[in-house]
From TrEMBL:
SUPFAM superfamilies xrefs: ARM repeat
Record InterPro entries: ARM-like, ARM-type_fold
Protein name: HEAT repeat protein
Domain of life: Bacteria
Length: 188
């Protein structure tokens, strides 16, 4: 059998390739998570992005499989510039908000992503920050102030997401917009 990380090669950044299949394989056999995580260290940005895509999909239902690799993800984001990787990392951090001890490491990265040049990365950072704010109110003020600045972002999609986020952040009983929460474990 080919190594799982090999499934994520080829094509271009517009395709998720076999990330869905890699995630399914890990969900069926958790021991494959180590093989998937090798993609975080791959020289090819495409493989790193697809690895994070697959990891995010695993984390939705089996975050405990991804959690041991969270320090590697955080370390990767110190230098990673590829939109595919950054966007999926932003999504992954929302799923990983279950682990309160990791919020101090994830929060500055997500706040930094609010300045990302790509709207998709900013958008998913906003969603994940809202999840963190709802779960851990001690971060609410910092998150709300940072997101509120984006209501005047040059991009219409970011402005819209920021306005929706501010509505969620201003009312603790307001449901999240559809599609913002991918995890089945968050209980929000």
């Amino acid at each position: 059998m080919a190594r799982l990380v090999d499934w994520l090669t080829g094509g271009d950044l517009r395709s998720d390739g076999a990330a869905d299949q890699a995630a399914q394989a890990v969900l069926q056999n958790g021991q494959l998570m180590a093989d998937l995580a090798e993609g975080l260290l791959h020289a090819d940005a495409l493989v790193r992005g697809r690895t994070l895509d697959a990891m995010e999909k695993v984390a939705r239902t089996r975050p405990e499989l991804v959690h041991p690799y969270l320090p590697q993800v955080i370390n990767l984001l110190n230098t990673e510039e590829t939109m595919l990787a950054r966007m999926h990392a932003a999504m992954l951090f929302g799923d990983m908000a279950l682990y309160e001890q990791d919020i101090p490491q994830m929060l500055p990265i997500l706040l930094g992503m609010l300045k990302d040049p790509k709207a998709f990365t900013k958008g998913w950072a906003i969603s994940s920050l809202c999840i963190i704010s709802r779960k851990y109110p001690q971060y609410h003020q910092e998150i709300a102030a940072s997101i509120q600045r984006l209501e005047n972002d040059p991009g219409a999609a970011v402005q819209t997401r920021a306005r929706k986020a501010m509505a969620v952040l201003s009312d603790p009983n307001r449901p999240f917009p559809k599609g913002w929460i991918k995890s089945t474990k968050l209980g929000l």
